[in-house]
Amino acid sequence: MTTLELHRQDLLPGAHLIGAEWRAAADGRELAVSDPATGKVFASVPDGNAADARAAVDAAAAAFPAWRATPAKQRAAILKRWNDLLLAHQEDLGRLISREQGKPLAEGRGEVAYAASYVEWFGEEATRANGDIIPAPVTGRRMLALKEPVGVVATITPWNFPAAMIARKIAPALAAGCTVVCKPAEDTPLTSLALVRLAQEAGVPAGVINIVTASRERTPEVVDVWLADSRVRKISFTGSTAVGKHLARHSADTLKKLSLELGGNAPFIVFDDADLDAAIDGVMAAKFRNGGQTCVSPNRIYVQEKVYDAFVARLGARVAALKVGPASDPASQIGPMINARAIAKIDQHVRDAIARGAHVITGGQRLQGPGYASDNYYAPTVLANVTDAMQCSCEETFGPVAPVTRFTSEEEVIAAANGTPFGLAAYFYSTDVRRIHRVTDALESGIVGVNEGALAAEAAPFGGVKESGYGREGSVHGLDDYLHTKYVCQGQL
Question: Which of 107, 120, 186, 261 is labelled catalytic?
């Protein structure tokens, strides 16, 4: 077994950062943090309220004029130092991610590298927020388009990638010259606090990053302060579509800029001309990473009838061999789910599918008893004979369940893939070049993986269409979402 204790205990500040001060909640209330592998509390953080949220905005607004005036090269240097510190503390941060989120330690370490890649990327992009000189239509005039930071940004991050999501939001904000108030997920606040501690060490000035932790019950109180405050000019949120719609509605009064990366229901299509071995590898990478708890995880697997039986048999064998256990066991490939609510939803989806005629190829039950120190484990599962009427096809399962549906024609599967309000990610496997172009164009999705199951990269735009949200993270487009364009027209030259 591997210890998940940290070498640097000061990476667990157990406090908000507001301005230059690490502090307790305004009323002293605390939020317990549990290890999903054991169900036991191992740390606590402040349970913030409206007073903490207002103090964070006050600090961010006060810091904004000096930070926006800081030369881009200096902001870039700070971000690059932050990147270096993340990589230097990869082991501690990986252990912390695995301890509070549950993912295997190899994935925890990998997430730290992934988070650092965004910090490095936007450190480089900070000096490239270029404007334009526009050819004037008349003599004696100069026309410019300048890029400026939007102002104070409120970021609200999810629990499934507690390092990567905070880096993907805060790094472009800082690169653009914005200041930040942040509310991390209540299940995984410790990683976010550790990243902010290292940002402070890297030289981020006081008030440029402010972080307020809060329980599920108190999160609306914190966020509503930011929604109502006209000094907060942008909201960046990753989470459910229902919450995203709430944020959009309540941002309308102050017309905030929004980046919303919301729910998904990703199709994974395997055509009969696909390389089946590659398709199986793609499903394993996309579906079972982080135990299926990813927004781009394939939720509906469609396989053409000619290769359906062979695909299901091979996938079942691969999934049955997965090792489930805590992150402290180096052999673990699937960790615990994040909490009891997650387990209940997964089990409900599987029970519903079985009741409606699905066939369990492997898995299909909770894992309890010796070797499982909590009730948060679920067996990696493959379901065959799944239909679009089942809950697992209509709702995002967010767990290690691979439901496989048979299809006949390209037209049929495109209609099924697009027959959802969501459009975050989609995948398909085919060796027919003409089909590749047709299907890519036809899929209603912000991200498409063609013969590839691992999609995300810091240089690529990440985001969805339809009810999966709008705005992009990563890439040059991700920096633009934190900038305004100011048109300047100078005459009498």
Answer: 261
User: What tens digit of pLDDT does each residue of 88-100 get?
Assistant: 999 999 999 999 9
Is 143 exposed, middle or buried (CB count within 10 Å of its CB: 0-12, 13-18, 19+)? middle
Q: What is the pLDDT of residues 214-267, one digit of tens each?
A: 999 999 999 999 999 999 999 999 999 999 999 999 999 999 999 999 999 999
Q: Does 261 qualify as catalytic in the annotation?
A: yes
